[in-house]
Amino acid sequence: MLSIALAGKPNAGKSTVYTAATMAEVDVANYPFTTIDANRGVSHVRTECPCLYREERCTADNCEDGKRYVPIELLDVAGLVPGAHEGKGLGNQFLDELTNADVIVNVIDASGGTNEKGEPVDVGSHDPLEDIDFVEREMDLWLAGIVERNWESVERKSRSPEFDIDDVLAEMLSGFGASPTQIARTLREIEYPEDPIQWTDDHREALARDVRRRTKPIVVVANKIDVAPAENVERLLELEKPVIPTTAEGELALRRAAEAGLVEYDPGDETVSIGDGVSDAQREALEGLAETMSEYGGTGVQRALDYAVYDLLEYVTAYPVEDASKWSDGSGNVLPDAVLLPGGSTPVDLAYAVHSDIGDGYLHAVDARSTREVSEGYELEEGDVIKIVSTN
Fold first, then answer.
1. Which of 208, 286, 361, 380 has the fewest CB atoms lying closer than 10 Å?
2. What is the pLDDT of residues 178-235, one digit of tens each?
3. Contact, 292 vs 247, CB < 8 A?
4. Domains of the chain as residue ranges with CATH
5. Are strands 103-109 and 362-367 parallel, antiparallel or unpaired?
6. Average pLDDT of 373-392?
7. What would the pLDDT profile of 237-293 be if each residue is shown by its tens digit?
8. Rounded mean pLDDT of 72-85?
9. What is the per-residue pLDDT across 85-143, written as a single tens digit (0 to 9) for each?
10. b vs e for 282-318, b when ≥16 Cβ sit within 10 Å of the residue's Cβ?
């Protein structure tokens, strides 16, 4: 399952984002290092279900009238402090947990109500822009340290006639999630000596920065916009980086109110319908939240996850079916499954994602929308409904 990690300094609201996105109970408090052991849970990305193009909506559990929610893993780890790459705070634990994540969501306190260590201060007294590059810098330096500690083995292997730096670095950095293709692209991007013995710390840091950028892209969640000074939010949104304005507490309140039947709201909606059963105080709070949502296009929690998967990682959602005419499985369930795949994936990749035996026995695929056979090299697009024909 695709994995998203929540990162950032302590007390920025990571655990609230996690709770709002998973509805799993975790410790949330106004002091640093509330989270010590990583929290792992299931959240979802939201996309448009192909059932919208049929007369009747599908029967899938994760479809709400055409709003399709596709499962992903969400990871909430301990907060990061300056010098984390050197082991300060819970740095080693934090960074080790990130190695298996596909994308990083950097949660910052847009209100400026916590300092660089995550300690509460007066709202507006800390500049949140200082926290933007914080996670990126610590991850880059941490990975550079790993490269440095393993460089002697690279130098030894370079003495072999069969030495190939692409293969050696791909093997060394495979635990960080770096593929041979990503390593090859990095080596085409940076300048370095042909002989690894002549590499300097600067060369190794350049390697680490580029590998991190390719393997662990980052989207920034500007949390606490409901209490942040307007100028803070404006400055954050002017940055040439993906920044999603967010109120995690607002999203959590809406999710709980929806469960209680007080509002009509689905994660990712830009508006909320307030019911009649709320108190005057609840209505006032919900109306204030609705204004914030109107200004920023929702609470931001769902939008951040969606952006991380569909924009940064460029994944697509495909729907495997057994009956191309009914878009159903063998039991008649319409669009029962949704599969996230990297952009450029083919029907063969989808077949293997369904089951390795289906992939091994792959014969051909049919586009259920057009009922036409597609080639095995066809690149899947968002929302494709595909029938896989296999010997297994």
1. 361
2. 999 999 999 999 999 999 999 999 999 999 999 999 999 999 999 999 999 999 999 9
3. yes
4. 3-129+217-308 (3.40.50.300), 138-213 (1.10.8.470), 316-390 (3.10.20.30)
5. unpaired
6. 96
7. 999 999 999 999 999 999 999 999 999 999 999 999 999 999 999 999 999 999 999
8. 75
9. 555 444 455 567 777 889 999 999 999 999 888 889 999 889 999 898 888 888 888 88
10. beeebeebbebbeebebbbbbbbbbbbbbebbebbbb
C-beta neighbour count of 328 within 10 angstroms: 18
Enter the tokens of residue 242: 């993906």
